[in-house]
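task queued by scheduler; priority normal; single chain, no ligands, no partner chains; default sampling; output format set to structure tokens
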Amino acid sequence: MPVTRSFSNEANFETSNFEKSKDSEDCKVTDSGALGNDSFQTSDSGGFQQICAFLKEGKWGQDIALNIAKLDLHLRSEDISCLLLQSVEIDVTLGFFRWARLQKRYEVDCSVYMTLFKALSDGKRAGDLWWLINEMQKNGLPVSNSMLVTVIELYSSMRRIDEALKVFENFKKFECTPTTANYNFILKLLSSVGNNLKINMLYNEMKRIGCSPDTTTYAIMIGMLGRAGKYDEAQRLLQDMGSRGCTADVRAYATLIKSFGQAGKVDSALQHFNEMKERNIAANEEVYCYLIDSLAEVGKLDESNGLFQEMEKLGVKPSASTCICLITAFIKSGKQVEACSLFDQMTAKNHISKSAIEPVILKLRKIHKIDFAWDFLHALFSRDYRPDAAMHYFLVHAFCMANRADLALKVFHQAVIDNEENALVETFNVLIESLGKVDVEGARQLFQLMKNRGRVPDVATYNCVIEILLKGSLPDAAYDMFQQMVQQNCQGNLVTYKLLVKLLTHPKHVGHSPTALNSFWKEAKVEEAHEFLSELSRKGLLTFGEVDRKGSVLEASS
């Protein structure tokens, strides 16, 4: 009977010997470190070394095959196994094997297949492993449970669920019997993609063939029933575990509590939490986090915070996501002081870092509570919270993305008050762009402040200001900004070019303008605009080289 092994978290082929079947030779593969040139003696050791050199050269092809064939060697299975380990390229290894098994003077037995299996497994070549296993079966060689497990794990790690399931469904074809652990792995895989129908089918199949479910199996099934909204059935299954030879453990309860929590049925979740305590089943981080998150989401902050404090007293460390959820719940309820206290407590105990503010702000922005985000930050600032330059940029950008330039300005001014070095060029850029949508003059003043503070505008800054001025129907100011850009030796890019084309070719910008450009605005002379921009390009003031007369200019101006 083939050796079986359970699935592990990683696809990792073990090199332990496989048992041989009655009608096959012993299929042993030793650790790759034990295979070396000194282990084998061929009729021509020099020829053996030549083959090694060929396999290390690079890509496998007809030329290498012909060169090896010319050596006219007789190679035993041990020799071929050794040679398979010489190449650093798995495609060369596979190519040599495919060719070698067709040669009459080469002995290719089960041990050679196993050596290739090890190499393909190490190279995470799931598709090639599946091909190899099928080839072994065609040639009457034994295929073990653990070999199929390896392929399934590799497909799973690549999120190729259908292929993993296909291999699992072929256990019977290879005369292998899946274990409870094998079923559990596949059930978890299907659970991760919410395939409840297939989970139920495999669960019934498992019982039909006499493969006993364990606590892990029941936890998966409880989760499946919970996702399907079949809460009564999920509870019954939990209660029936004892009569089916299993004791409900923390995993089963955690799954049920999570299902109730996600459905907003927090009272039922708490009921099962208390039931755990009565049965002396210690709640773990997972259980506490599910409950705290669920209670916080429905606004039961006192109960949620109480569980958090209980969790800490018991020495169970909360996850960062739970800390963030609890803080966010207090903020959106208008309890900024409590939220700040929690933040200080959690950072002091290293449950979260100060950068946890980022997911908090993003979560508030997503639920359209951006004003509460500012209230929270303002409260933190009053408690001597001093974010660094990178955090200030993030905060300004977050408020700008929410179209709240007013709040972004407040954060920006706080950054300058705390430390003038916090005002990065990137921070100025994002704020200028956001402010320019509602206040052109304010954006211009911010640009001037940027220069006054000693920040050097980059091409993104100039492009942003030029575009704001163009949209504000200020072509003269836009061109003046471009001249400043040139004077500061700041090279333009394709965005600059397109903005200049709009500036030079759109009649709506007619007005008082520099003499050299007045005719372009009045008559929308594309050719003259092209010559002007080409000259700038030739002088190195635009970085994208010569412009295309019929393509780029016309396209950009449309």
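post-processing summary
- Confidence is low (pLDDT under 50) at residues 1-26, 28-43, 509-524, 544-558.
- The radius of gyration is 34 Å.
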